[in-house]
């Protein structure tokens, strides 16, 4: 295999998605072609209904594309798999398991030795700083803690791609900022590839190497914007604001195309 | 705990607020006991008055029932076929109740999990179950006597039938109401096939399954009387039937009270088990 090929973590080729809604057929995704490199942090941004969640669910293997295929590390995917881990907005933790058991769930499926599972779960409990809460149930945790568990659960399973569907959308601003920083630290340490859906332009500019702006009706990737700001990024710097403004303009131009065309001329 | 925190905040000594709250809690606890135990005592007293006032001989007085209960449990008063036999009858009934109940759980829970999860199975079985379910268990009595003859198996079958549907339906409902994301999360973490049923579907549906078990358990005790009408010589249901044949209403009422008490105690045991198994669920504390 060529060196350039090995760098490609995810390849989406000619993927489209149509849903049947009653008698009609809705085109959720027009043709999407996309490659994402190993270790890249990619944010997907766009208005509600632009198909960004659908795209993520296709990559996760929860839904099949109507046409086209998704390749991970050069192999076409056939369904959900350990190599791709989803972090849901509403956590989707197993409520009958403790923090540690949730994190150890993936390793347990691989029928590892008991001691090894224990070791891995402890390691990832530590990674997200929840040692004191290892034996708590999800119902006893705050939203931020739950999302830390969800992230650790996926990483403990050696996922090479982290799929995040508005993971911090339900959190308060302070917790959200803290988790963004923690996610960046984890990303820097593990070099996991991240695909991150958000509504927030600021969040996208804060986190991403590359922002994909999606437009609706049918969903497609309208812009592919690299973010070259140095890390750690300063939200209040003029450079940051410039990138944010540019991205916000692109986003609104897709939400209300008519008006922006007028103002552009 | 909350009281302690407030007491610590307020410094040494008991603040009037804390004392008032503690008094209130004690009062509420005592009130619950007085009301809960007082009402049946009141009913027994009214029963006593009614028997005296009407002078009936068809209904025994509470005293007569108490004497019968003593004799049924320890003997030494009437010294007839029922004296001191309570444990034999309880043991027979318990065997049949739990034979039928556990059989219903052993079939109902796995079947419910499968029906809840697999659409083809749902399409195949749902209509049949919906038609069979409304048929009263007592309507099966003649057929069950043909299938199983006069004996304990017919009783077990009836208890099974009565317990089966609540367990099956609640299990199916439990699986159907689990957030689909939990199954997706399990699948992406490498869980599939029978591991999915054991590790995710079953525990996720457990709160609902326990609701079904509790309802079914109640039905099982109700149906034991019907089941033991099929001509078995021992069991609490047969004691009641014998009492009826012999016109000994004190025996009938004694049997009723024993069934009620056993049903109550065993229900508390099921609640205790479910509270233990479902300690993770904030909604569940019965």
- Overall pLDDT confidence of chain B: 89
What is the radius of gyration of chain B?
A: 25 Å
Rounded to the nearest angstrom, the distance between the terminal CA atoms of chain B is 21 Å
The overall number of domains of chain A is 1
**CATH superfamily (homologous) name of the largest domain in chain B:** MetI-like
Q: What is the β-strand count of chain B? A: 0
Beta-strand content of chain B: under 5%
Structural class by sheet pairing and helices of chain A: alpha/beta
CA-to-CA gap between the ends of chain A? Answer: 49 Å
CATH topology of the largest domain in chain B: MetI-like fold
Low-confidence stretches of chain A: 1-6, 258-265
Kindly report the spatial arrangement of strands forming the biggest sheet of chain A.
6-7-8-3-9-10
Percent range of helical residues of chain A: 25-40%
CATH class of chain A: Alpha Beta
The CATH C-level name of the largest domain in chain B is Mainly Alpha
Specify the helix fraction band of chain B. Answer: over 70%
Shape of chain B: flat
What does this structure look like?
The complex is a heterodimer of chains A (265) and B (286). With 265 residues, chain A is of the alpha/beta class. Chain A has a single domain (3-83, 160-264), classed as P-loop containing nucleotide triphosphate hydrolases (Rossmann fold). Chain A contains ten helices and ten strands. In chain A, β1 (8-21) and β2 form a beta hairpin. In chain A, α8 crosses α9 and α9 (238-255) packs across α10 (257-264). The longest helix of chain B has 39 residues, at 16-54. Chain B is flat. The chains are: A alpha/beta (265), B mainly alpha (286). The interface between A and B is medium-sized, with 29 and 22 residues.
């Amino acid at each position: 295999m060529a060196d350039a090929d090995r760098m490609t973590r995810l390849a989406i080729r000619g993927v489209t998605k149509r849903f049947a809604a009653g008698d009609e057929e809705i085109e959720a995704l027009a043709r999407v072609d996309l490659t994402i490199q190993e270790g890249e942090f990619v944010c997907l941004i766009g208005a509600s209904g632009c198909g960004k969640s659908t795209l993520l669910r296709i990559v996760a293997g929860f839904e099949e594309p109507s046409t086209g295929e998704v390749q991970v590390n050069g192999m076409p995917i056939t369904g959900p798999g350990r190599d791709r881990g989803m972090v849901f907005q509403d956590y989707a933790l197993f409520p009958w398991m403790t923090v540690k058991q949730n994190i150890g769930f993936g390793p347990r499926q691989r029928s590892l030795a008991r001691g090894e599972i224990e070791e891995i779960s402890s390691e990832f409990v530590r990674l997200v700083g929840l040692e004191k809460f290892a034996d708590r149930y999800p119902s006893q945790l705050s939203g931020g803690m739950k999302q830390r568990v969800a992230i650790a659960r996926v990483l403990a399973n050696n996922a090479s791609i982290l799929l995040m569907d508005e993971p911090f959308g339900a959190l308060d601003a302070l917790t959200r900022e803290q988790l963004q920083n923690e996610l960046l630290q984890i990303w820097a340490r593990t070099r996991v590839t991240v695909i991150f859906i958000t509504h927030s332009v600021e969040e996208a500019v804060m986190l991403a190497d590359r922002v994909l702006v999606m437009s609706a009706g049918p969903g497609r990737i309208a812009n592919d914007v690299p973010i070259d700001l140095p890390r750690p990024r300063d939200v209040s710097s003029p450079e940051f604001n410039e990138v944010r403004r540019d991205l916000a303009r692109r986003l609104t131009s897709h939400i209300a195309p008519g008006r922006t065309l007028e103002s552009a001329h | 705990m909350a009281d302690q925190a407030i007491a610590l905040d307020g410094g040494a000594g008991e603040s009037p607020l804390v004392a008032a709250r503690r008094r209130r809690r004690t009062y509420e606890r005592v009130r619950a006991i007085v009301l809960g135990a007082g009402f049946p005592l009141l009913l027994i007293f009214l029963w006593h008055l009614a028997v005296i006032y009407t002078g009936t001989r068809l209904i025994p007085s509470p005293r007569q029932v108490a004497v019968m209960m003593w004799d049924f449990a320890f003997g030494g008063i009437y010294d007839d076929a029922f004296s001191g036999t309570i444990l034999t009858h309880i043991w027979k009934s318990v065997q049949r109740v739990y034979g039928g109940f556990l059989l219903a759980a052993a079939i109902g829970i796995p079947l419910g999990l499968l029906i809840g999860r697999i659409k083809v199975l749902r399409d195949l079985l749902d209509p049949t179950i919906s038609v069979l379910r409304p048929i009263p268990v007592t309507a099966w009595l003649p057929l069950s006597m043909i299938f199983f003859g006069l004996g304990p198996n017919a009783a077990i079958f009836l208890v099974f039938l009565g317990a089966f549907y609540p367990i099956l339906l609640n299990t199916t409902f439990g699986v159907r109401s689990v957030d689909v994301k939990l199954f997706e999360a399990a699948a992406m973490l490498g869980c599939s096939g029978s591991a999915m049923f054991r590790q995710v579907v079953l525990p996720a549906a457990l709160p609902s399954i326990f609701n079904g078990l509790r309802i079914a358990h109640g039905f099982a005790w109700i149906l034991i009387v019907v089941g033991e009408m099929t001509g078995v010589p021992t069991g609490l249901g047969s004691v009641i039937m014998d009492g009826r044949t012999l016109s000994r209403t004190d025996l009938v009422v004694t049997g009723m009270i024993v069934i009620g008490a056993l049903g109550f105690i065993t229900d508390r045991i099921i609640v205790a088990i479910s509270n233990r198994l479902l300690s993770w669920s904030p909604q569940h504390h019965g």
